[in-house]
Write a structure and sequence with these properties.
With 513 residues, this protein is of the alpha/beta class. Helix content is 33%, strand content 23%. It folds into 3 domains: 189 residues, Rossmann fold (3-Layer(aba) Sandwich), CATH 3.40.50; 185 residues, HUPs (Rossmann fold), CATH 3.40.50; 96 residues, 2-Layer Sandwich (GMP Synthetase, Chain A, domain 3). The protein contains 15 helices and 18 strands. The protein has a 9-stranded mixed β-sheet with strand order 2-1-3-4-9-8-7-5-6, with helices on both faces. Helix 5 crosses helix 6 and helix 6 packs across helix 11. Bound molecules: xanthosine-5'-monophosphate (XMP).
């Protein structure tokens, strides 16, 4: 077993997932009382996660220094590295440049041969890695050797071979560090643990269905269906478990994309063989959102309105359980662990009112999107549904900067429809995590037919990702961007400018709000 000490990183759970993918048990623990837990669980290795704090700040999370004397191999990641340096006598300071995104890892020039580093011995020189930090290590404790650097930071990887203590500034757990798994695997091997890969198969899905059966028993459940992959897979799982005792309700919030409600009815009947009840709640949502501009407030209002409408439906159906397709990144970005920061309240987590008359059932809470897709495939769902691009619960409301009105929704729907039509014509659709339009709320000057126009600006956001924790903007061909842009300004009369979002995550999130 590996103990993963959580200092509040957005990716703590992702590190644990990677370790579990290697067939190794991993337990996430908080830094307080860690020595007692280690005594009980006798782990073969310890990992310190990253975190949002700075080691030199007052009240930043720390750990008992005795941990370094236990003789158990330790790997510190990002804040974890900085903390070990700080506690063992080195120096950490605020970096001149904050570094978020890709960097190239260079094995220290003084190393004569690749084998000189324990942790990096199985990776090449000059590999891409993913950074997300503001602080840097200035000097290392005397027992440590710097074994890799980047153009921006002198100390990217350190090792104390004798005590088997290692520190890395980048994030090996995200897919944007392609050799990250090899580095984690190397650490696991250093810990003396054998690697075997875990699998997600029919037995695994049957286990999930059985768990749901046990939880719901003879009770009734109502499912908050959005038509997206997550809630669809959740609904099919629960339907397998309790059959007719599940009522699937789709609330039309008026914040959906063009034609969404119509296609949803069709798809569900055909592919899932589950009847859905459509509740038209457009007016309530728009009324509750009137004049609201703050993103977090929007999310909270939408979350609460969803629950209010659902509670009414649930009362009618006699359900006691509310099934939601919440997945892990929704939980973590809504501040799912003690030391992690809230990035945004995903409507199906942070937006829930504290008093609710339904028991929440979230069968996918511990999974990432790609895992949910695998479960969907095991359940026999067709590719075109399993591979649907994600759509946020709060819908177009978080893609409209400023207050939400029917008029803006219509403009955005029309622009988004063009993007979807054009991308569907290409093979790129399959490789993109998401592509969508954002109503920026910025008006700019244009010229049309020799006359001055003052119109709206729409942004295109196209993302490549594997899980939602890190992502890069897609380098779409200019020809395609031009086609989309030309169609939007020609066909949506209110829009006279289209811009392309070229920001990675981190530092930007995928949705603008
Ligand atoms: P962010 O913007 O957090 O998005 O980088 C990561 C992924 O999550 C989707 N997203 C949501 N999904 N409820 C959801 O069900 C939400 O409130 C929500 N907010 C963002 C987003 O579309 C992206 O795929």
């Amino acid at each position: 077993m590996i103990i993963l000490v959580d200092f509040g990183s957005q990716t703590t759970h992702l590190i644990s997932r990677r370790i579990k993918e290697l067939g190794v048990d991993c337990k996430i623990v908080s830094p307080d009382g860690v020595l007692t837990i280690i005594k009980q669980l006798k782990p073969k290795g310890i990992i310190f996660s990253g975190g949002p704090a700075s080691v030199y700040e007052k009240n930043s999370p720390t750990i008992d220094k005795k941990i370094f004397k236990l003789g158990i191999p330790i790997l510190g990641i990002c804040y974890g590295l900085q903390l070990m340096v700080y506690l063992l006598g080195g120096n950490v300071k605020q970096g001149k440049i904050k570094e978020y995104g890709p960097a190239i890892l260079k094995k220290d020039g003084k190393l004569k041969k690749v084998g000189d580093s324990d942790l990096l011995k199985r990776v090449d020189n000059l590999i891409p890695v993913w950074m997300s930090h503001g602080d840097v290590v200035e000097s290392v404790p005397k027992e440590f050797k710097i074994v890799a650097s980047t153009e921006t930071i002198a100390c990217a990887v350190i090792e104390d071979k004798k005590r088997k203590i290692y520190g890395i500034q980048f994030h090996p757990e995200v897919v944007h560090t392609p050799d990250g798994m090899t580095i984690l695997e190397t650490f696991i091997k250093i810990c003396g643990i054998r690697i075997s890969t875990s699998k997600m198969d029919k037995e695994f899905a049957d286990g999930l269905v059985l768990d749901i059966k046990k939880t719901i028993g003879n009770g009734k459940a109502i499912c908050a269906l959005s038509g997206g992959v997550d809630s669809s897979v959740a609904a099919v799982l629960v339907h397998r478990a309790v059959g007719k005792n599940l009522e699937s309700v789709y609330i039309d919030s008026g914040l959906m994309r063009s034609g969404e409600t119509k296609t949803l009815r069709k798809v569900f009947k055909k592919h899932y063989k589950i009847g859905i009840k459509v509740v038209d709640a457009k007016d309530i949502f728009l009324k509750n959102l009137k004049g609201v501009t703050d993103p977090e407030q929007k999310r909270k209002i939408i979350g609460k309105t969803f629950i209010d409408v659902f509670e009414k439906e649930a009362k009618k159906s006699g359900a006691t359980f509310l099934v939601q397709g919440t997945i892990y990144p929704d939980v973590i970005e809504s501040a799912g662990s003690k030391l992690s920061q809230k990035i945004k309240s995903h409507h199906n987590v942070g937006g829930l009112p504290s008093k609710m008359n339904l028991i929440l059932l979230e069968p996918l809470r511990n999974f990432y999107k790609d895992e949910v897709r695998k479960i969907g495939k095991i359940l026999g769902l067709p590719d075109k549904i399993v591979n649907r691009q994600p759509f946020p619960g709060p819908g177009l409301a978080v893609r409209i900067i400023g207050d939400v009105t029917e008029e803006k929704l219509e403009i955005l729907r029309n622009a988004d429809k063009i993007i979807q039509e054009e991308i569907q014509k290409t093979k790129l659709f399959k490789t993109l995590w998401q592509i969508f339009a954002v109503f920026t709320g910025i008006k700019t000057t244009g010229v049309r037919g020799d006359g001055r126009v003052y119109g709206e600006t729409v942004a295109i956001r196209a993302i490549e990702a594997q899980d939602a924790m890190s992502a890069n903007f897609a380098k779409l061909p200019y020809g395609l961007l031009e086609k989309i842009s030309t169609r939007i300004v020609n066909e949506v009369k209110e829009i006279n400018r289209v811009v392309y979002d070229i920001t990675n995550k981190p530092p930007a999130t995928m949705e603008w709000e």
